[in-house]
Amino acid sequence: MNSIDFTPLYRSSIGFDRLASLLDNALTTDNVSAGYPPYNIEVVDDNRYAISLALAGFEESDLDIKVEKNVLTVRGEKADSGEHRYLHQGIANRSFERKFNLADYVEVTNAELKNGLLTISLVKEIPEAMKPRSIAINQASNSVLEHQEQGSRESESKVA
Question: How far apart are CA 29 and CA 57, in angstroms?
Answer without folding.
Answer: 27
